Amino acid sequence: MICAALTQAKELRFDPLAKTLGMSPPTLSKHVGQLHEAGYVATRPDHRDSRRQWINLTPVGREAYEGHIAALRLLMPE
């Protein structure tokens, strides 16, 4: 769900993303951390408020997500 949301925007701020996905901030933080370790997302602090951060999908993450969606489409009957 995180990657799907991030494909719709250049980057999203952490708090609104958590709210949109219906995730608690700790849960989103855990998942974003795992995606960051895999190289799928990048984060940066908000220059106006260092307690907030922005998240974006990396080119590697976008390619992995698109591959995942393509694989799912192959499983769907026509």
From TrEMBL:
InterPro entries per the UniProt record, alphabetical: ArsR-like_HTH (IPR011991), HTH_MarR-typ (IPR000835), WH-like_DNA-bd_sf (IPR036388), WH_DNA-bd_dom (IPR027395), WH_DNA-bd_sf (IPR036390)
Lineage of source species: Bacteria, Bacillati, Actinomycetota, Actinomycetes, Mycobacteriales
Gene3D superfamilies referenced in this protein's UniProt entry, alphabetically: Winged helix-like DNA-binding domain superfamily/Winged helix DNA-binding domain (1.10.10.10)
Species for this entry: Nocardia macrotermitis
Pfam families given in the database record: HTH_34
Annotated protein name in UniProt: HTH marR-type domain-containing protein
GO molecular-function term, one example from the UniProt record: DNA-binding transcription factor activity
Superkingdom, natural source: Bacteria
Coiled coil regions in record: none
Matches recorded under PROSITE patterns: HTH_MARR_2 (PS50995)
Domain HTH marR-type intervals: 1-78
